[in-house]
Design goal:
Blueprint (H helix, E strand, L loop, with lengths): L2 E5 L2 E4 L4 E8 L7 E7 L6 E7 L5 E3 L7 E6 L4 E6 L8 E8 L6 H5 L6 E2 L3 E6 L1
Parallel strand pairs: 2-11
Antiparallel strand pairs: 1-3, 3-8, 4-5, 4-9, 5-6, 7-8, 9-10, 9-11
Length: 128
């Protein structure tokens, strides 16, 4: 049973930084892709960033480029999302996701259906 547990969410002010963590357990993740998605109130879930566990290739949504950085620590089975220069429009529940297959395609990374496992979500609120 794969478990993904997010942590690090909270209330911050515009311009602040925040780092989310996603601790993965229950399987060897060497062949996985890990992603971060977010869902704001009244909006659909949207892709933020993805990373392949084996070689660390990354892919970002346009809204995340230059401000967010996804990384992983293989020894800790943990994926991170470092967010800087946060804006009120970044307010959302952020979800960690894991997919058992990797295809190096932007459309694949962006699609929630590419991911098999999901965390419970972490609330990020950015005040203006």
């Amino acid at each position: 049973q794969v478990q993904l547990v997010e942590s690090g969410g909270g209330l911050v002010q515009a311009g602040d930084s925040l780092r989310l963590s996603c601790a993965a357990s229950g399987r060897t993740f060497s062949s996985y892709v890990m992603g971060w998605f977010r869902q704001a109130p009244g909006k659909e879930r949207e892709f933020v960033a993805a990373i392949t566990w084996s070689i660390g290739s990354t892919f970002y949504a346009d809204s995340a480029k230059g401000r967010f950085t996804i990384s992983r620590d293989n020894a800790k089975n943990t994926v991170y999302l470092q967010m800087k220069s946060l804006k009120p429009e970044d307010t959302a529940v952020y979800y960690c996701a894991g997919g058992e297959k990797v295809y190096y395609s932007g459309s694949y990374f962006r699609s929630s259906s590419s991911y098999d496992y999901w965390g419970q979500g972490a609330q990020v609120t950015v005040s203006s």
